[in-house]
């Protein structure tokens, strides 16, 4: 007999569940009942833990489970069935818990963090931009190094514990018999398929209604609060599909009133420069805060109005999508990101149109070209080229990121080097959050506020970045004043900065982020960023009020003396009725608000036309192209990215 080598691992026992020594005898009631009760109990504890982590409120979690036939109890049954099915696949009782528990608890933790910092729950589509999150990790680590170290240690420890538990479990738990595995699959698969079928929020389900699972897709925070994290997350899986508006057809598109506007440009085509400044906002609006000197004097003197951002604290690409296309996020699923999910073929934009009129359409961003999928999206938008970190010359940094001054230098160089008129779209990077204290070693401002030292220094870091952005605009204006070529400059912030505790300590917000749904006056306070549209021929445009990014093409082209069937024709007519078109709010030029408009039985036909045109050009048959986007007809070639 061969001797067993000293130190060799003990062999894994291969006894079956019908081994009398294990008590897992098929025909005996107790083991079956014991397995079922244990699985349901494990599922209940896991679902409770998930909800507790996501909500951050123990008693709120208890309330979620108090009444029977609520989504919480349904979720427990679903989790139990998933574990039963996985046990059958893995071949050992309850081993599925080692997969389901770490996965769901990790998702719950990420969901809580996203809700804390951005105000939105975790959506399935968030994983489309996981690479962006990883790219921001150095900034997050710099702001909270000890938190990062603890998370890293917890991750390593958790993985080690999981590996140890997995190996130990396989040594001590019998292999399921073929009959036991088939029985588990026969129970779990049909019931899980049934639950999947009733989760389609677009169709009515009597069973779902009886279980009191009500999809609240128009208010995702309430959706997650009412249905629980797991079910709400599952119901959002189909959000990548955008259903056609009711009645969509060529006939309905043809029935939309055609504007009596043709595409035209002046004899001397003006250069058009658009700067979307990262998180640019007026920090002096914070209650009880004094910042000296004024961090944004140029914008304050030239301000044309406000940009009503559809986002808060992040999701830059969604503001960018509206500003370049003249389309609206209001007609897309909540939580979706068009740059990641929907822009997969040539899509009409300002770049498409202006390039067709002889412009050189260029984009600049001192970050990486894959961030927000910009490289592929800009190609589909019709830009001639996109200069990013990979193709720009080395750019001077201010703080940890490329400076606004260096980006301004590049804008001026690009415009001066072009014989053709240019449409230049630039996205800054310097003032991207988080705003760790002492970000800049040589601050030129001071902050006086009755808040903690950490919050005050964080606000100072943000104010320094805002001042640099404002100075960049002043340089562009001074440069443009000396040019012979007509030049239009548009400058705006994409969203309010993610200042977190600063908002709470100053009393600007109750929480770190603004709520998605609130009265119109509060929404304007929490979503308006400064907007400047300026011409070296006529000076600043004035008295625009708050406008959605989708109306930016109208105001820019009108200032430039350019007309277009959609951008100045259709949007111009719509602008006479509404200046803000948001998912939760319509706002007229007179300031009359229509909250929750999408849930009303009767929707303004003009808004419906807006939605129909957008769907037709992004997802439909492009029936509207000849009349509204003539520059796109017979010129569509899909990219191969």
TrEMBL record:
**Keyword line:** Cell membrane, Membrane, Transferase, Transmembrane, Transmembrane helix
Q: What is its main location?
A: membrane
Matches recorded under Pfam families? Sulfatase
Listed InterPro entries: Alkaline_phosphatase_core_sf, OpgB/LTA_synthase_biosynth, Sulfatase_N
On whether Transmembrane is a keyword of this UniProt record, the answer is yes
Question: Which residues are in the Sulfatase N-terminal domain?
Answer: 270-562
Enzyme Commission code = 2.7.8.-
User: Cross-referenced SUPFAM superfamilies, in alphabetical order?
Assistant: Alkaline phosphatase-like
Membrane topology is: Multi-pass membrane protein
Q: Where in the cell is it found?
A: Cell membrane
The regions listed as transmembrane in this protein's record are: 35-53, 73-90, 97-113, 146-164, 185-206
User: Which CDD domains does the record associate with it?
Assistant: LTA_synthase
Q: Does the keyword Cytoplasm apply?
A: no
Q: Which GO terms describe its molecular function?
A: transferase activity
PANTHER family reported in the protein's UniProt record: LIPOTEICHOIC ACID SYNTHASE, PHOSPHOGLYCEROL TRANSFERASE I
Q: What is this protein called?
A: LTA synthase family protein
